[in-house]
BFN domain-containing protein (Thermosipho melanesiensis), 350 residues
Amino acid sequence: MKKVKVESLVLDKLNNSPVVILKVEGTKKILPIWIGACEASVIAMILENVSFERPLTHDLLLSMVEGLESKVEKVLINKIVDSTYYAKVILRDLTVTEEENEGYFLEFDARPSDAIILALKTNSPIYISNELYNTYTLQYDGESMDNDSEEFRKFIENLDINEFKKFKKGSQGDN
Amino acid sequence: MKKVKVESLVLDKLNNSPVVILKVEGTKKILPIWIGACEASVIAMILENVSFERPLTHDLLLSMVEGLESKVEKVLINKIVDSTYYAKVILRDLTVTEEENEGYFLEFDARPSDAIILALKTNSPIYISNELYNTYTLQYDGESMDNDSEEFRKFIENLDINEFKKFKKGSQGDN
C-alpha cells in the first residue's frame, strides 16, 4: 500500500470527464482516476473550501457514521477490473475495543470518488494498492512537485490523458 | 404527519430545476419539492428501475448503515425555512431493544432529496409534517389520481410551478 494525496482535479476533454490526480507520497508518481460529474463537483467544493449550508449526501453519510459511533479510518483504492476502479472505505467501530479484534474495522465496497470525498472530509489517509502503484502510476520527471511549482502545474495541465486510455477502454469514470 | 409517496419527477423549466412531486396518501393533495440535478438523476434511476453496477453514494451510505447494525425507519420532510426545505432521516439502531428506549431511534438532518432517495431505496415510509400539509400542498380537483390516469398526468405536466415560487424565493432546490 502506498499513501497518496489528492493533487488536483482536471478535465479529460476528449471524454468530457473529470479526472482526479493522486500523487504518491515520497515519490514523483501520479495516478489519475476518472470520476463522475456530481462527485467531481463535491471534490471541487472541498478543494476550494466552499461550504454549503445544508448537508450534502456525503455529510449525511458522515453524520450517520458518527451517530452510529464509528469513524472513517482510511480508504484504499485497490484494483482496476474491466476498466473500473474499485475502492474500499474502512470504518472503525468505536464501540469495539482494539483487543476485541472482530468488528473493530469494517470494510465497505465503494467507488474511488466516494472514498476520496469521505477521506478529504474526515482528513483520513488515502492509500492505493501496490498493484495500482506498480502498474498504473505515471512518473513525473521534473524538479519540484510542490503544489506551487509552475513546472508541475504545467505537467498536470498538459498530461496526455490518452496515455491512460488503455486502462479505461469504454469505461465511464468510476461509475 | 401525513404519509406521502413519490408521484413523479418534473422539470421547473423556468429555473431549469428538477421538482419531485409528492402525493399525500388518501387525499388529492400534492407537495412539490425543488431538488438538485445530481439527486434528481438518482431518483430518476430508481423510478425507472435502472440499476448500476457500482455502488452509488446512497448505496454506500445504506451499506454502512446496515454494516453498523441499523436500518432506515422512516423519513420526514418537516419544514420550510427561508425557502429551504428540511428533512430528517430516522434510523433504528438494531442493537438497542425497544424497551431500552434511549438510542432506539436516531434522527439525522438531511435534504429532502437525500431523504427521499433513502426511503425509496429501502421501501421506508415518507412523511410530511402537518405544517407542510396545511400550508404548502396543492389540491388536485380531477377524478382519478392513479399513476396511469391521463388526466392526472396532464395535471402534473401542466402544473404551474410558479404557484409555488412564493415558497421558494431565490432558492436553489433543496441544496
